[in-house]
């Protein structure tokens, strides 16, 4: 096995806790049952790595097999690194008919056509997601397997999720995706998170959404043990309404685990009482960043508890409605209303 | 004995009376014994059978107005090498009560004693530092020039370096801990009221491992009969810093005004608002014009500034930032965190920051 293969293997095994290594190697099914039994996972990592390397050499495994292992690792642990969403646009008429084999062929053919040295691996996961691993080289040097790009796409949806893509490779990847999916263009989805699951669930609406409904109300998860028959809640209606509003805007728990939302504000100053500043034509520029271990849960609690005033402003509900977490907010025009609109730059 | 009781109850009565009158201006976070308006010295002089630190019955004022931040080429007053020690590090803040029999002339002797103390504690098994250090070298330096008024004592800087066991002669010892005691523009009445054998250096800034900080504090407590406590900043101080630093923008590019709030949602939500420096300055200037002849900035103007930013935020996001806490303020001139952590970015405005912090330290000291 060459040095690249051993480096990649080393990195994978170092990343995962010892107790998970066995499962990963089993899924890989490149080592025999005896070899798997012989590995002692209580040993220090460097020992385990050495053992695995020696078994790989015994079995005459090469870089190809190691990259398969890396892919399996990423598929099993998708919530690592930072994922960015891109959105395909201008679907052609036969975009819905694109089959998996067709997609694979077109994608590989395009990339092989523009770069001499490139290594592409594709795998279809059970949840219908296509995982693509790309190790980039160029016309002169071999592919670098230590910095692969990962792409995840669900066929027939308009979203593509990308991790670890360098700017210089973007110009190759984007046309390949556009051609293979039979669309006209691709653009930035303005959504980035660490969790691929959240990234997929949000724009594809795979979470418990709540729709405005005059009749049914979402039951609150409050414990009603504290209520006494003689105690009436003065603001019970208001609380229910706020709770309903918050769920409509941000979905019901559990929500996709977003961590941040960033708003670039380029609107006129709207602080109170300050005439000289409010008359200014220039914008009051700033950047607002919301962060939390689970942003949607925090925002929902904010609205439900009254820390945010209802109705929920479109700036915040746009996170779920439009499936993005980066916005540039500008005033609509000279006749500006009190609410600014969220615009795609 | 009757006279004693009489005076005692008279004093208590006066305390209660003064407290009621100034309830409006007292910040909510302060304990009730503090007042925002000084009604002069309390009538009861400090007899020796009261247990407080001498001089403490003088009422400390919380200023409702202060001068604008003035830039000064601090390097004219202070050795640039000393300045370099203070800038760019993150410091954890504590307050310390006045030091008894502290002499700026005895710094070398203090260095030796502290080094010996640390070595002795380490031998006793107190965990100090992981490694093969043979010993520690302690240096006390006087940083002259930071003190502003005649009552301020000169700043003292303490540095601890480790000497590895098998070091070659050429190996530079590694600095493992730094700290400094300072007093900048301390309340002159209070400082004058201290007995002559006490030195007040109420602000203590430390950077390094917790275990070493505790050791240094223990030694100082034993040597100078003083008490330490952690100094958390309050949002009024942070508001002042936001306004004062923004006001410096014309003379020194602050690069940005970044305010960070924490909202008590589940899970907690952090909101950070980074304002363009020119726009922040224009907002500040519209509240407190630069050309105004009165050099004093009033707390109401500061509150108006922060409210303006919070309202602009509210108009967009409909979230009440006042439901949360302002946790951190930062500009290119420095940053200050509610937990009592600061960073000094630019030495030109260091006096402003240290004045505010000295004041906070003096106010936080226990009665």
From TrEMBL, chain A:
Keyword Translocase appears in the UniProt entry: no
Protein's UniProt keywords contain RNA-binding: no
Family per similarity comment: Belongs to the CENP-N/CHL4 family.
Protein known as: Centromere protein N
Pfam family, one: CENP-N
Annotated compartments: Chromosome, Centromere; Nucleus
Superkingdom of origin: Eukaryota
Keywords on record: Centromere, Chromosome, Nucleus
GO terms under biological process: CENP-A containing chromatin assembly; chromosome segregation
Cross-referenced PANTHER family: CENTROMERE PROTEIN N
UniProtKB/TrEMBL annotation, chain B:
Record keywords: Centromere, Chromosome, Nucleus
One GO CC annotation: nucleus
Subcellular location: Chromosome, Centromere; Nucleus
InterPro entries: CENP-L
Similarity remark: Belongs to the CENP-L/IML3 family.
Protein name: Centromere protein L
Organism: Cyprinus carpio
């Amino acid at each position: 096995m060459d040095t690249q293969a051993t480096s990649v293997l080393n990195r994978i095994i170092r990343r995962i806790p010892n107790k998970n290594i066995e499962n990963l190697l089993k899924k890989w099914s490149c080592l025999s049952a005896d070899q798997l039994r012989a590995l002692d996972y209580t040993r220090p990592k460097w020992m385990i790595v050495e053992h695995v390397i020696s078994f790989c050499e015994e079995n005459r495994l090469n870089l190809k097999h190691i990259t398969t292992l890396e892919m399996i690792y990423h598929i099993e642990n998708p919530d690592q690194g930072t994922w960015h969403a891109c959105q395909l646009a201008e679907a052609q008429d036969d975009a819905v008919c694109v089959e998996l084999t067709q997609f694979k062929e077109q994608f590989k053919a395009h990339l092989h056509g523009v770069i001499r040295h490139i290594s592409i691996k594709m795998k279809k996961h059970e949840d219908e997601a296509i995982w693509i691993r790309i190790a980039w080289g160029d016309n002169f040097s071999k592919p670098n397997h230590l910095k692969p790009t990962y792409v995840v796409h669900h066929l027939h949806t308009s979203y593509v999720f990308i991790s670890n893509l360098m700017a210089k490779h973007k110009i190759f990847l984007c046309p390949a995706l556009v051609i293979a999916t039979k669309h006209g263009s691709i653009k930035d989805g303005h959504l980035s998170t660490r969790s691929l699951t959240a990234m997929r669930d949000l724009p594809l609406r795979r979470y418990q959404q709540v729709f405005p409904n005059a009749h049914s109300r979402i039951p609150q998860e409050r414990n009603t043990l504290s209520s006494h028959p003689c105690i009436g809640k003065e603001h019970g209606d208001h609380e229910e309404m706020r709770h309903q509003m918050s769920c409509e805007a941000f979905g019901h728990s559990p929500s996709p685990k977003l961590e941040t939302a960033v708003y670039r504000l380029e609107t006129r100053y709207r602080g109170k009482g300050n005439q000289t500043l409010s008359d200014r034509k220039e914008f009051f520029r700033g950047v607002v960043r919301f962060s939390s271990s689970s942003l949607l849960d925090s925002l929902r609690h904010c609205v439900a508890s009254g820390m945010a005033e209802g109705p929920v402003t479109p700036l915040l509900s746009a996170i779920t409605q439009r499936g993005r977490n980066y916005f540039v907010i500008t005033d609509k025009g000279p006749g500006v209303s009190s609410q600014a609109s969220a615009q795609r730059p | 004995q009757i006279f004693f009781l009489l005076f005692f109850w008279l004093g208590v009565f006066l305390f209660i009376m003064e407290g009621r009158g100034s309830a409006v201006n007292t910040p909510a976070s302060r304990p009730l014994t503090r007042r925002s308006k000084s009604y002069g010295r309390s009538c009861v002089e400090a007899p020796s059978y009261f247990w407080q630190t001498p001089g403490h019955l003088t009422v400390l004022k919380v200023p409702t107005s202060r001068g604008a931040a003035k830039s000064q080429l601090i390097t004219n007053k202070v050795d640039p090498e000393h300045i370099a020690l203070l800038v760019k590090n993150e410091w954890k803040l504590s307050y310390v009560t006045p030091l008894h029999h502290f002499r700026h002339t005895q710094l070398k002797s203090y260095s030796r004693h502290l080094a010996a103390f640390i070595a002795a504690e380490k031998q006793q098994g107190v965990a100090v530092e992981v490694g093969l250090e043979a010993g520690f070298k302690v240096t006390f330096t006087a940083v002259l020039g930071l003190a502003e008024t005649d009552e301020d004592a000169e700043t003292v800087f303490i540095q601890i370096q480790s000497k590895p066991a098998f070091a070659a002669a050429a190996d530079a010892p590694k600095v493992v801990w730094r700290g400094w005691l300072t007093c900048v523009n301390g309340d002159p009445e209070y400082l004058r009221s201290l007995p002559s054998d006490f030195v007040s250096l109420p602000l203590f800034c430390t950077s390094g491992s917790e275990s070493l900080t505790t050791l240094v504090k223990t030694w100082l407590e034993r040597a100078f009969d003083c008490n330490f406590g952690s100094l958390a900043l309050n949002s009024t101080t942070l508001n002042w810093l936001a306004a004062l630093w923004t006001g410096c923008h014309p003379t020194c590019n602050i690069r940005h005004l970044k305010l960070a709030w924490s909202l008590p949602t589940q899970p907690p939500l952090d909101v950070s608002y980074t304002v363009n420096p020119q726009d922040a300055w224009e907002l500040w200037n519209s509240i407190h014009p630069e050309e105004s002849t009165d050099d004093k900035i009033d707390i109401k103007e500061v509150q108006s500034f922060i409210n303006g930013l919070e309202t602009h935020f509210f108009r967009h996001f409909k979230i009440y930032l006042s439901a949360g806490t302002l946790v951190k303020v930062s500009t290119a001139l420095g940053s200050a965190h509610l937990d009592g952590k600061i960073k000094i970015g630019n030495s030109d405005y260091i006096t402003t920051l240290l004045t505010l912090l000295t004041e906070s330290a003096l106010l936080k000291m226990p009665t």
